[in-house]
Amino acid sequence: MTAPSILWLRRDLRLSDQAALVAAAAAGPVIPVFILDDDTPKHRRMGAASRWWLHHSLASLDASLHEKRSRLILRRGKCEEQLALIAAETGARSVHCLRHYEPWWRNAEKAVAKQLDLQCHDGNYLLPPGSLTTGGGTPYKIYTPFWRALKEHMPPPSPSNRPREIAAPDKWPASDMLADWNLLPTKPDWATGFTAQWEPGEAGARKRIAAFADEAADYDRCRNLPSQEGSSRLSPHLHFGEVSPATIWQRTADAGGSVDVFLGEIGWRDYAQNIILQFPDYGGRSARAAFDVDLPWRSGSAADADLAAWQQGRTGYPIVDAGMRQLWATGWMHNRVRMIAASFLIKHLLLDWRLGEQWFWDTLVDADYASNAVNWQWVAGSGVDSNMFPRIMAPLTQSEKFDAAAYIHQWVPELAELTEPAIHDPESFGQRPRSYPAKIIGHREARERALAAYDVMKAHG
Ligand code: FAD
User: What average pLDDT score do residues 73-78 get?
Assistant: First the structure.
């Protein structure tokens, strides 16, 4: 019998448009494997919300594989070690995978390739990250020219169907039990709100696309309004690779209206991967080094208390608090509110952007090393693109402008009785209920403090 191939799955938990699966299935029997690596140094441990998602996504993938008389093998440990053990156990000759660009995955790919015949395929991005270069031959650093260049290569190749058959090996290697990985929270179970909101897995992703395809034409009008479901909410499905961007493109590109704006957001996802390919430590180090060295970020007990208030949604700024509570309850936050909440942490509270990046990493179901770091550094102004630090968002004005009253009512029940305009700024209207905290800092005072800190950094430079 033909030797089996290993299908090494990571953030590509799907059967459709899965180039690694297509190649492995064409070669003979397939052993689908997922390895949880929590212990390798520099391998970023998944956050708690991501672990919740992962559990359900793996269960869903295993069920889909069973429909094809296959199964998912679960292992824990270093990828290269586990894959070598499985190869020795089963006589597998090669390993197929989709390429991933987080620094730890690139290291793992190198380590596996030293021991086994590793065949890497593309397909988790519109174009393979790193493949686009400027006229001068260097990788793009700025989104707009990057997107302009990427669009020249669109549409992406048509997505492939799931293989009709996935041949099983003669002998299955041993597998862990998913439940033993303890990916789900128990005491307390903080994820009940997640279950109501999400259906992890390929079928859930398909339903989301179907629901969104009808709305895509109106995307630009609705996407900035947190009170409406104006965006696709595909981010966790995309992060875990339950759907390919090519499939999304195929399903939405003809929607007309402002669908190009939506496709441009999918382009942001590609852009972020291109950035971490150039700057692997982007999640922990400012591209403008002065932000890490010279900017007087606050620290100490008052700063710690402010960080906790932000995390718990108790800052006294309703739009910020609504966003942080939505995040805690559902593992997701509206993009406009992410920008407002991130700006508030960095500028109003003068807390290092990396504290926010870490909180999002732990609490978002779509936590993505590249997208998270790129967006945090963009808001901070510390990144490779334009320096936004001196542009300080006014959260209360943003709340009014983007019509956030219903959103605040939903997530901040203490303010349920308030109407416009007091709902956006209860304190200034003398309508703050006793149960709702006072502002932890006034807007003007915060703005002056942030700009003074910025001047200190500039003076050092
Ligand atoms: P839609 O508006 O429907 O967009 C479609 C898809 O495009 C998204 O699913 C996502 O994959 C991609 N996308 C959209 N906006 C961006 C963007 N600005 N950058 C990169 N990709 C984008 N997104 C993540 O996927 N993971 C993160 O960890 C993450 N952290 C963020 C942190 C901050 C501080 C900010 C401001 C934004 C962050 N984003 C992150 C980007 C964005 O907020 C989410 O992708 C978006 O809100 C997801 O909702 P959606 O699927 O409805 O998006």
Answer: 97
